[in-house]
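input
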Amino acid sequence: MLEKVQIILEDEEAKFAVIPYEDYLRIRDLLGDKEKLEDYLDYLHTQKVKVEVKSWHTLQAVKESLGLDES
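output
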């Protein structure tokens, strides 16, 4: 969403952002539904973490670390 934004400048300062109508409808729908907005914000946070985190732990390693290993 918002990959195709046109910025309108006035005196070399951004004044307006023009987006495709379909994007506008999705944003309007998202902002009008608290649960959808929370889900979308969670998704954005997850994407940010995926980029930032360089190492991952296996489920087994996490269980062992927490003392939850069943084996």
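quick obs: The chain has one domain: 6-65.
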